Amino acid sequence: MSLAAAAPARTRATTVRPSREDVAMRLGVVAVAAVLLAIVGLPLWALLAKGFEDRDGHFVGLANYMAYFSTPALLNSALNSFEVAAVSTLVVVPLAFVYAYALTRAVLPARRLFQGISLIPIFAPSLLPGIALIYLFGTQGFFKALVGGQIYGMKGIVIAQIFYCFPHAVLILTTALRTADARLYEAADALGASKLRVFLTVTLPGAKYGVVSAAMVVFTLVITDFGVAKVIGGNFNVLATDVYKQVIGQQNFSMGAVVGMVLLFPAALAFTVDRLVQRRQVALLTARAVPLVPKPKFARDAFFTVFCVAVSIGILAILGVAAWGSLIKYWPYNLSLTWANYRFETFDANGWDSYFNSVRMALGAAVFGTILTFVGAWLIEKTRGFGAMRGLVQLLAFLPMAVPGLVLGLGYIFFFNAPANPLNFLYATMAILMINTVGHFYTVGHLTATTALKQIDPEFEAVSTSLKVPMWRTFLRVTVPICLPVILDIAIYLFVNAMTTVSSVIFLYAPDTKLASVAALNIEEAGTTAAAAALCIVIVITSAAVKALHLVADRFLFDRLQRWRQR
Amino acid sequence: MTFLEVRNLTKRFGDFTALRDVSLDVAENEFVCFLGPSGCGKTTLLRAIAGLEPQTSGTIRQKGRDVSSLPPARRDFGIVFQSYALFPNLSVADNVGYGLASRRHKRAAVAARVAELLALVGMPDAGPKYPAQLSGGQQQRVALARALATSPGLLLLDEPLSALDARVRLRLRHEIKALQRRLGVTTIMVTHDQEEALTMADRIVVMNHGVIEQVGTPQEIYRAPATAFVADFVGSMNFLTGTLEAADRVRLGAVTLACPPQDGLAVGAAVRACVRPEDVRVRDLPADAPNRLTVEVTDLDFVGAFCRATLRAGDIGLVADFSSNLVRDLGVVAGGRLDVALPPDRLRIFAA
Lengths: 567, 352
Description:
The complex is a heterodimer.
Chain A: H1 2-6, H2 20-50, H3 63-69, H4 72-105, H5 111-119, H6 127-137, H7 154-178, H8 182-190, H9 195-224, H10 227-232, H11 239-249, H12 253-280, H13 298-326, E1 328-330, E2 334-337, H14 353-382, H15 387-402, H16 405-416, H17 430-440, H18 442-455, H19 459-466, H20 471-500, H21 516-525, H22 529-561
Antiparallel strand pairs in A: 1-2
Helix pairs in contact in A: 2-14, 2-15, 2-16, 4-7, 4-9, 6-7, 6-13, 6-22, 7-9, 9-12, 11-12, 12-16, 13-22, 14-17, 14-18, 14-20, 14-21, 15-18, 18-20, 20-22, 21-22
Chain B: E1 2-13, E2 16-27, E3 31-35, H1 42-50, E4 57-62, E5 65-66, E6 78-80, H2 92-96, H3 98-101, H4 107-120, H5 136-148, E7 154-158, H6 166-183, E8 186-191, H7 194-200, E9 203-208, E10 211-216, H8 218-223, H9 228-233, E11 238-246, E12 249-252, E13 255-258, E14 270-275, E15 292-302, E16 306-313, E17 316-323, H10 324-330, E18 337-341, E19 348-351
Parallel strand pairs in B: 3-8, 3-9, 6-7, 7-8
Antiparallel strand pairs in B: 1-2, 1-4, 4-5, 9-10, 11-12, 11-14, 12-13, 14-19, 15-16, 15-18, 16-17
Helix pairs in contact in B: 4-5
């Protein structure tokens, strides 16, 4: 050893030659970056640029923004949006917190049923609660006296948004409340802490990041949602409907872009707050934590059961009214039942085609989107070196979460419809609807895939390399089979969102590629509420059926396919 | 013959230097252990040798070939991790044959080789099982078989036994060592467990703070630690502070002890004299035994096979391990007095 130690230190830096495989994977990362740039980055850039142009495409600096902020009606919409979002958040989060608390910390009869009911709104387009409220409290509504005859406007939007946002908040809060260490509660009990003190010092701190996250998600959902405000907003203007009016109504694309940017701001802000807060979250649940299993306690369980029943009835009532309304001949004068409202060809030129378009679009988005997200996340995780490019992809993958669908859709018009764009041929095709949907919902799939990949032993690739097995082979033989449940989750998520989304695709459909959710909106606009309700119900049934199929497959099929998971 | 030649290897992670100018030779068929506390750079060195964590500078030659800048796929090694890293969705046979199947071997040949390897690690019937159905020790055996399947020239073991319980660990130590001897594969194992290193290695590389403290056979490391760190890290050790009175005499307070002659240290230098607890002699002391002391037994802890005694002689405090027989025969009790000797050739002197 002494001889080696005596040798003069050489400082020649080592540069490792990337293997052919490294090169291939880096090219893959570049390809994913290019795709994300095309489906997210550049459309947004096009939108940003459009805001500085006049109707003829000349650069006019901040003139559009000046015009916007000096138009009281437009500025008023921004304040309205903010108010609606704030009020909805203040109602939904506490409601969802109690519901999630009941699901995780009380012993409920039929807990799974309550959990399932809370998720129902996810399967519906956002105009469904609006339609149901019109049936109940609208000018022809049964209970219109209850709300003083005026459901249109802020009141209606907030109620519909509560229905629409509730499942998202419950999902986040259930996760936050489920990760509890029973030992903390035992320690607090042993120290003689009061119930209130335990709640304030153990439960709430453990869930506070979840609460912030839920609040930010709900706020963003409300401020960016278009369907509810469109259906039940009446003369109450919000940012989302302004974008629509500027673009579709007045064909003023530049002003649409400006409103889009204004809409982007609060959404991006909420997203940033959420990210910053999440970063401070440390793992509360160590490997040695003892999961908290609630013990039966009559008074508490009875209270929460009553609460959950009440909320569930509310959710089911809204869904039920929409379903019932869709089967009624002429609300409210002739309540006899009919299938006539499901003959869509009598209300819309596309008839049932729009429904099949939706299914095709959703299938395409689910298949291609899942492949892109999962392969993309894998490339980011497993490519050696190449940090800057991977960082760029990571950023682009996060971007869609902060971007409202309407804004992205608008960006698509500017980017893909530009004659100079070689991707111009995609405009007004089914493909662009799929691409847009994948881009719009990219972030959640990416996060899900990344989380799953991080949970896999990082040494798998090292072992494969030492055995001279190519990465792609390990990807197909090991990574994909292990992640199969997660891959399906991503696909289902994309499918359901593709079925229900309105906001981003409203600018992009062509006459022959109209989607069911958009058709429902058009039909409603034309005054045929019952047929719109019928189309919404068809969407709910389809997405819920796919989800149910997924659960059944998970339960039975994977028991066999994933035999290796059993000990 | 030198199989692996590591020269002036440095690895930096940002501002942190994980390896500082490390050089090392490993002979063919040798079993070498990298031993050190966590964060000493032993795993970094192993991963650099594999190419998984390329060094910042320096060279690595394997069998005369410069592999310094080669990606791991083009180096010749098999690796076993602490986590086993077995593919959970593949059967044991598919795991072991993973590196074979992709090399376009005939199916029958792969099956035969898999059977051979499973027999080698003592699990001939485990082929159709899945990793989750195996115990930790069995999983580690499968991981070993998988790493050996492609007959690599170099076997790298990254803390392979740390995740196992004590009893299994002891058995696997012997099995791995015997297997390595039988196959003659050059092996490097990373461990923080000194006992593991002492029982398994042909040579031990003791590392600390990104540098090599000492390389030697287990006996050399234990008997003649080159630095105070090695003396402290491997085995138990008494550290007695004093000054070097002459080249072969060290003064500890009121006591002067004879020691092996020190040429590296100046007379009068502050030093630490080290002696292992089991080297404190009690039985059959001649009247003129060198370094003879009369000590008071201040404490006597029963440890099982032996007793650990805390001794005091004036300013000197030290611990000694006495066999249970010795304690019984000589009637050693806490509070009693005892004559002991610290054999000069068992004394190690380090600069303080």
